């Protein structure tokens, strides 16, 4: 039996590294764990900016890059939660599967049980990355993925899992005003992220065409500093004549979205969580399939998708009969079931 532990969950993902989507995942999981009866004093976070994370959420936080700091937290915790997103893939970084494999090994060495929620698994360009992901996920006592493609991949590896929607869909947002898709007035909010090849440039060109056809004002929607820098560069080239480019941050994203997505806004979303924000606010959207996870989200919700070839379809309403509030409630119900399995009573804990 392990010694007494005062933490129930250490969360780790791509937190504290300047990407709003990952900060939203962290916020959603903290809220969700609280709804399952896990207090903030029983959670901790591994973060790239532990001071900011500690100040924003009121949780214990340690530097994700410090082996000593991570090990110290894991020795205090019953579990390690790999908290959502595309952390097991090597399309954006070959280091990601290596890092999380190493973290899972460290958790096992320190007696913290690994589990995961809201994962998009793959794509993999290297066989080693896939092997590391499979090893890491096999060690998880509870596995949650957010799309059918990932579930199929795990099934091929002989691993079971729960399929839920993305955790961010469970976040509450203020009303952004009614969508007026039958009117020509309003703005087209466009998110463009850096990516290989000329997909970002073609996205800008097609968004400008749609804005012109619908007589919409063009606005840039950045979820990371690199998005803003790219759209500024495209604007300087004359390819993206946005009247403004707004960068959403983790501290004020609700109020910023309420303003930006007010009126008749439609959305062109390259990043996965730009599309999720559009769904949360009930906006017509079109996704740009730079990664399979965006295509999976479009398939789940039934909104238009553009793969970079030909003309981009106009933003449209989801057609799958889903609503963000009902999907969020369903996620929280499924999370409670996963928490019951992952956090099953075992030994006595020391409470804060």
Structural class, from secondary structure content? alpha/beta
**Please, how many helices?**
12
Cα end-to-end separation:
21 Å
Helix content: 40-55%
What is the overall shape?
Answer: globular
Layout of helices and strands:
Blueprint: E1 7-12, H1 20-35, E2 43-47, H2 50-57, E3 60-63, H3 67-76, E4 77-88, H4 95-110, E5 113-121, H5 127-138, E6 143-145, H6 148-156, E7 162-163, E8 187-191, H7 199-213, E9 217-222, H8 225-236, E10 244-247, H9 253-260, E11 266-269, H10 272-280, E12 285-288, H11 292-301, E13 305-306, H12 324-342
Helix pairs in contact: 3-4, 4-5
Summary, kept brief:
This protein has helices at 20-35, 50-57, 67-76, 95-110, 127-138, 148-156, 199-213, 225-236, 253-260, 272-280, 292-301, 324-342; strands spanning 7-12, 43-47, 60-63, 77-88, 113-121, 143-145, 162-163, 187-191, 217-222, 244-247, 266-269, 285-288, 305-306.
Walkthrough of the structure:
This protein folds into 2 domains: 7-171 and 328-342, Glycogen Phosphorylase B (Rossmann fold, 3-Layer(aba) Sandwich); 187-316, NAD(P)-binding Rossmann-like Domain (Rossmann fold, 3-Layer(aba) Sandwich). It is built from 12 helices and 13 strands. The chain has helices at 20-35, 50-57, 67-76, 95-110, 127-138, 148-156, 199-213, 225-236, 253-260, 272-280, 292-301, 324-342; strands at residues 7-12, 43-47, 60-63, 77-88, 113-121, 143-145, 162-163, 187-191, 217-222, 244-247, 266-269, 285-288, 305-306. The strands form 2 sheets. Strands 3-2-1-4-5-6-7 form a 7-stranded parallel sheet, with helices on both faces. It has a 6-stranded parallel sheet with strand order 10-9-8-11-12-13, with helices on both faces. Helix 3 packs across helix 4 and helix 4 runs parallel beside helix 5. The longest helix is centred in the last third of the chain and has 19 residues, at 324-342. It is globular.
């Amino acid at each position: 039996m392990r010694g007494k532990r005062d933490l129930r969950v250490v969360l780790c993902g791509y937190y504290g590294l300047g990407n709003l989507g990952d900060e939203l995942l962290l916020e959603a999981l903290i809220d969700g764990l609280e709804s399952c009866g896990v207090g903030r004093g029983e959670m901790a976070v591994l973060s790239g900016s532990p001071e900011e994370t500690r100040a924003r959420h009121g949780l214990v936080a340690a530097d994700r890059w410090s082996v000593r700091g991570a090990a110290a937290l894991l020795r205090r915790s019953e579990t390690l939660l790999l908290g959502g997103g595309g952390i097991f893939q090597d399309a954006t970084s070959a280091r990601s599967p290596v890092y999380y494999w190493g973290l899972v090994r460290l958790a096992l060495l320190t007696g913290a049980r690994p589990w995961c929620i809201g994962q998009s698994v793959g794509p993999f360009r290297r066989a080693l990355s896939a092997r590391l992901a499979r090893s890491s996920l096999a060690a998880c006592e509870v596995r949650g993925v957010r799309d059918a493609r990932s579930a199929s991949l795990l099934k091929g590896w002989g691993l079971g899992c729960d399929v839920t929607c993305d955790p961010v869909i469970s976040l509450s947002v203020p009303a952004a005003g009614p969508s007026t898709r039958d009117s020509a007035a309003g703005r087209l909010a466009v998110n463009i992220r850096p990516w290989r090849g000329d997909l970002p440039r073609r996205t800008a060109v097609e968004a400008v065409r749609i804005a012109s056809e619908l007589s919409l004002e063009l606005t840039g929607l950045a979820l990371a500093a690199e998005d803003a820098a790219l759209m500024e560069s495209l604007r300087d080239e004359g390819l993206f004549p946005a009247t403004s480019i707004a960068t959403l941050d983790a501290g004020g994203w609700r109020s910023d979205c309420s303003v930006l997505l007010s009126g008749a806004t439609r959305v062109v979303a390259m990043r996965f969580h730009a599309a999720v924000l559009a769904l949360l606010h009930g906006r017509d959207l079109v996704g740009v399939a730079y990664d399979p996870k965006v295509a999976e989200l479009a398939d789940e919700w039934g909104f238009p998708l553009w793969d970079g070839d030909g003309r981009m379809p106009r933003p449209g309403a989801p057609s799958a009969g889903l609503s963000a509030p009902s999907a969020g409630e369903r996620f929280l119900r499924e999370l409670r079931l996963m928490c019951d399995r992952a956090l099953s009573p075992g030994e006595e804990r020391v409470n804060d």
